[in-house]
Design brief:
This protein has 479 residues and is mostly helical. It folds into two domains: 50-213 and 226-269, MFS general substrate transporter like domains (Growth Hormone, Chain: A); 295-478, Growth Hormone, Chain: A, CATH 1.20.1250. Helix content is 73%, strand content 0%. It has helices at 27-43, 47-74, 76-81, 92-113, 120-141, 148-180, 182-216, 224-259, 261-266, 268-277, 280-283, 286-302, 304-320, 337-357, 369-378, 382-387, 402-427, 442-474. Helix 2 runs antiparallel to helix 6, helix 5 runs antiparallel to helix 6 and helix 7 (182-216) runs antiparallel to helix 14 (337-357). It is globular. The two termini are 39 Å apart.
Length: 479
């Protein structure tokens, strides 16, 4: 899954002198610059061994960052089956995505502002432990039979809490990855897609197994609701439990990473800030906070095109996936709806992973902010394409082919992974982004771009209500 060393020949820390002199009065900037120069020297002594471990650890952290959202997304059929007959069932996917992404956006704003005030290693570990606890609660929910309203409240509260913890996890791991260079960021992005594929493979296999067992077992509830609920509850337990175990493993991996000498050197600028902030006189100092805010605003203005591009990628994605794509039905009567739904989630995950992996090869990289913006805007064309598919058996659907739908979905997901990864890598690259003026801007650029990415997710989830309304107007049978 990771790029060969020969294909991604990046330095751990980009070697480019600051374009603007540092303010001698700002001691944190001076210390940050000195630490970055030390990091370059340390990382160059053993690039092969260190880089391999760091890349794989960032794949694990990339998985952990998007694991909460993928858990909730993949479990959508399970949630819907337990909301059968309630008013929440029809628009649950839009409620879930908008609630999760809006909370993610708000908490990420706070996490971005305070990103320089907390130890990233400690923050990463604590958030991973918290996410493991919340996922364990979802695992236990498969043994409970709640009425629709309490179940809906439980799922939404759990989702918002996972979103909050995920926001702080995201800022800490992206800030550290940016210091190791674009190769580590690419590994992080690959991990985010890999976790979706892994979960969806487990989900597809478990759904297939339970559907096959239910179809051959006597004295079971043969109604659609009963069959769906039985299969989905049991399959949901499997990937909820596995996800809990993975998060515990990721927390252990973070403890190991923090103990590595290369981490202590490369991440020293971020860890050292926490040590300085422990001094009450410096923690409440106006100059340090003002300097940090100014740096964030300056970098955000300089990278506006990259930020708009990565945000719009996910506006389009969340506008139709999964609120609209999950409504597309198979044209084959022999295909079980649950299997078709699981296969469609897996197809998106595979395509997204392929798109992110393409960034491992220089020929597929796009560094220009304007080209990336054009590619991002062009993805708008996928929205009408999905509306033309077999949405809940629409008799007038122009695209009535399962293969055609899957091809469109695959192209949609490849573009999602490729364009978003290029935006994240280019926005924080001193070599390819002339708008960054100093090495101290690298982690800030990555964190701000991540903030806009989540902003795009939030806007896209809200836009899904509009797109769903268009689908209903075109097809009165859409619920």
């Amino acid at each position: 899954m990771l790029a060969p060393t020969s294909d991604v020949a990046y330095q751990a820390i980009p070697q480019a002198p600051p374009a603007t002199p540092l303010d001698p009065s700002d001691e944190s900037d001076v210390e940050l610059s000195e630490s970055l120069h030390l990091a370059r020297s340390a990382s160059s002594t053993s690039p092969d061994v260190v880089d391999s471990r760091i890349r794989w650890l960032h794949v694990i952290f990339g998985c952990a960052v998007l694991l909460p959202w993928n858990i909730l997304l993949t479990a959508t059929p399970y949630f819907i089956s337990n909301l059968d007959g309630s008013s929440y069932q029809r628009s649950f996917t839009s409620y879930l995505s908008s609630g999760f992404m809006t909370a993610n956006f708000c908490f990420l704003a706070h996490a971005t502002i305070i990103s320089k005030k907390h130890s990233p290693s400690r923050q990463t570990f604590l958030t991973l432990v918290g996410l493991a606890c919340l996922t364990f609660l979802l695992t236990m929910s498969t043994f409970m039979r709640l009425s629709p309203t309490p179940f809906f409240v439980f799922v939404m509260v759990n989702a918002i809490c996972q979103s909050a913890l995920g926001s702080y996890l995201q800022t800490s791991v992206i800030a550290v990855a940016s210091l190791f260079g674009p190769a580590a960021l690419q590994s992080l992005m690959v991990g985010q897609a890999a976790v979706a594929v892994a979960i969806n493979v487990v989900h597809l296999i478990s759904v297939w197994g339970f559907v096959q067992r239910d179809s051959t077992t006597e004295n079971v509830d043969r109604s659609p609701a009963g069959e769906s609920r039985g299969a989905e509850n049991q399959s949901a337990f499997v990937f909820f439990a596995l996800s809990t175990i993975f998060l515990v493993v990721a927390a252990a991996a973070q403890l190991w990473l923090a103990s590595l000498p290369v981490y202590k050197t490369v991440a020293a600028p971020l860890e050292r800030v926490k040590e300085v902030d422990d001094d009450p006189l410096l923690f409440h100092g106006h100059h340090g906070a003002h300097s940090n805010r100014n740096r964030i605003l300056r970098v955000a203005r300089a990278n506006t095109v990259y930020e708009v591009a990565v945000a719009y990628v996910f506006v389009v994605t969340l506008a139709v996936f999964p609120p609209i794509t999950i409504l597309v039905e198979s044209t084959s009567p022999s295909t079980h709806p649950l299997l078709f739904s699981a296969a469609h989630f897996l197809m998106f995950g595979v395509g997204d992973l392929v798109g992110r992996y393409l960034c491992s090869f220089p020929r597929f990289l796009v560094w220009s902010d304007r080209r990336l913006l054009a590619l991002s805007l062009a993805r708008t064309l996928f929205i009408p394409l999905f509306l033309l598919c077999n949405v809940q058996g629409h008799d007038n659907a122009l695209i009535r082919s399962d293969i055609a739908f899957m091809i469109i979905l695959f192209a949609f997901s490849v573009s999602n992974g490729h364009v978003s990864s290029c935006c994240m890598m280019a926005s924080s690259s001193l070599q390819h982004n002339p708008r960054l003026t100093a090495e101290e801007d690298v982690d800030v650029a990555a964190t701000v771009a991540s903030f806009f990415l989540v902003g795009g997710l939030a806007v896209g989830s809200i836009a899904s209500f509009v797109v769903r309304g268009v689908a209903c107007s075109c097809n009165p049978f859409v619920q």
